[in-house]
Amino acid sequence: MARYEASVVINRPVEEVCAYLNDVRNWAEWRSDVLEAEQTSEAPLGVGTTFQLVMQWMGQRSEATLEVTEYEPNRKLKYWGASGPGSAEHTYTFEPVEGGTRLTFVAEAEIGGFVKRLYGLVEPVFMRIAKRHMDGSFANLKDILEAQA
Fold first, then answer.
1. Which pLDDT belongs to residue 128?
2. How far is CA 9 from its chain centroid?
3. What is d(CA 131, CA 116) in angstroms, rounded to the nearest whole number?
4. 3-state class (DSSP) for residue 110
5. Strand pairing of 34-39 and 86-97?
6. How far, in Å, CA of 31 to CA of 47, rounded?
7. How far apart are CA 3 and CA 23, in angstroms?
8. Which domain holds residue 105?
9. Angle, CA of 104, 108 and 48, to the nearest 5°
10. What confidence score (pLDDT) does residue 56 get?
């Protein structure tokens, strides 16, 4: 299983950061890999909530279905998703810090099928690209939320 982590401090209160990030319709605005996103289950957000994403990453367009597996308002959003030959569990945690919020993202991915053998050879490169991508997306998120102040 591959794992990577990204973190950023956003100079906004936890409640504002959570409200923005927990609305999946905003993801296309700050995540460079998300083209479209919608919640496909009834509101409110909680365990069992589902989302559908249209994504483009490393030149490949794909669709992903996500399901919330753990949710603690203003503290944690965890979901599982599948796309193509792989699946991943993603966790966002929100921590109040002086002047704002520390947002941390952890991804744990599992690649299956014939891609698994190839992936084993390129995993270190893939993880560096994924981390760089998430760091860039977090910089976008920080800019968007701090501009709303």
1. 77
2. 16
3. 20
4. strand
5. unpaired
6. 23
7. 25
8. 2-147
9. 80
10. 87
Helical H segments across the chain, by residue range: 14-22, 27-30, 115-147
Kindly list the distances between the CA atom of residue 77 and the CA atoms of 38, 71, 86, 88, 94, in Å, as whole numbers in the listed order.
Answer: 16, 5, 20, 14, 9
Residue 12 sits in a domain whose CATH number is 3.30.530.20
Contact 126, 2 (CB under 8 A): yes
The total number of residues shown for the chain amounts to: 149
In three-state secondary structure terms, 95 is strand
pLDDT at 13: 97
Report the Cα 57 to chain-centroid distance in Å.
13
What pLDDT, in 10s, does the model give residues 43-90? 899 999 999 999 887 788 889 899 999 999 999 999 998 766 567 899
- Number of domains, the chain: 1
**Structure tokens belonging to residue 104:** 């941390």
